[in-house]
Amino acid sequence: MSSQQNPAPDTAEAAAPAAPRPRRLTYAAALAALEGTALLAGGLWVLVLGLTGAPDDRQQAVTLGITLAVLALLPLLAARGLLLRRGWSRGPAVITQVMALPVAYNLLRADSMAIPAGIALAVVAVAALVLLVNGETTRALGIKGPGRSE
Known about the structure:
Transmembrane segments: 25-48, 60-79, 114-134
Largest sheet: none
Helix content: over 70%
Keywords: Membrane, Transmembrane, Transmembrane helix
Structural class: mainly alpha
Distance between the termini: 46 Å
Protein name: Integral membrane protein
């Protein structure tokens, strides 16, 4: 190889958008990442308790733990996509929030310590939905509305 070869341009610099990322988009990504992290932590906790504790049904506990950990990938990937301004990432982020609302409702109906968790989940899901459907966020992701060709 010759030392005279030109280095390839940095692809991260070439792909970076010109305008700064809107704060609303950053906040939406942070909320999605928070939900994904909570799902992952909950899944690992259930999995560890299922393997080391004395659950009523070990197989069900392990299955639930693995399922929660795998479900955590959706909001975590969506958060990464939102930070990188990928238009596809809004769909999974919205789906995550819509799925969180019935879970929050069920937690709110419980007569236990789950009520504060339900309140927190509902607040995060509604706030993230508001941020995700905001016009500034939509424009930053390059999503065009129906009938708009520009």
